[in-house]
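Let us work through a complete example step by step.
Step 1: write down the sequence.
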Amino acid sequence: MPERFFQRHPALRGPRVDNPTCSKTPLYALCTDLPEVLDHYREMMAKIMELVPDLAMASLFTSDSGAGFDYNPDQYAGPNGAGFNRGIPLEKRVARFLRALLDAGRAVNPDFTVNVTSGFPTEMRAKILALCPPGVVGSVYGLYDWEGGLEEHWGYHQAVWGMPKAKWTIRNLDRAAAAADRFADMQKRFDVAAQGGREPIVHAELPTTDYPRPLRYTPHPFETIRLMKDLARLGAKRIAAWGVISPKSLVPHEPNERNRDHVIHELYAKHTLPELFDAAETLVRESARATGEAAKVLKHQSEHVRLAWLYMRSHYNWYEAGRYLAPADQPGRDRAMPQIVADEIQVTQETIALIEGRAERFLRIMPSDFMTYEFGPGFVGQLKQRISVMQSHRNDLPRSLSDRLGKLHAYMKSLSGEEL
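Step 2: predict the structure and record it as tokens.
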């Protein structure tokens, strides 16, 4: 809530929920243990149900710190709150809040459920769900991904955050061991959420657009099949899938080609590509003038910026190829498709030359916020295979996929308006 609210209603102030390491202004939430705040949320839920009587679910997401509840030990600012509720166990207070939402929803729709999609640790989630009625369910996602967990995360499994020493423990796992590791983690989390006969909602990110990066718009249907088999083996019946295999996920689609003109000519051509290129060249020149460790650092930085340029050039190529793969209204025209493919082959060859034998110097192999599928040991091999495929089909006549976009294509066009 904004600070001006608490200046008017200081008695309703709850925990500090911002991250002091990167925020300049403290932010606070309402204290959900106050009767008047619980009444507020009941009224809110009742009004939502009045607008959408058939609403099946409300999801509660409190981010990775479990923020929003007083005296949560995982809050960025440390356990803090209103004071009077310090001695009340966290799980009891969270369960009471969830029950308030559930009761208000079920007053209209008896099948309404509340989904705990939050950052509570597995142990705390188990305690919370144990105190909640069956109408409160929990989302399941793995240690390695907020939006999934069973995907190909070879890189993530090389490091584990160790407690209580709070440091990374590096492991050497092959892909089979990593797969077993992530499945065991998901099974544990699923079993916690399934207690009391609940049917948890299991998150899965299907490998489509931007997965694996940087091979944009390259679907991996075999990964989807494997993922679905793992979900079935897990026992999942309710799945929240992020992304689908469809023509929309294969090509960079624009509802109006004037949008594409602007991105290609005004953004990529005038800013992104030349500015990255100049930055890399500047670092190369400075590294030649420097000596010792400084020269090595500057050279290393120039190579990283060069890789960023190659990534952006690849994005540029695929985006322009969308003129042929998914043409829209008011088509523009720049390079022919064989020219685009030839450029992409060259970009891929230069990427291989830059990273082969030392990929770990450039690519994330430690846990981060996103996928690391493409950063496994087979990445350079994938790039080489990609070249052979592009060479074989360089002169194919381009096929428009617009007719396959169906209703989604028409819907996107209607959203865009007539023109820029």
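Step 3: interpret the result. The first strand starts at residue 13 and ends at 16.
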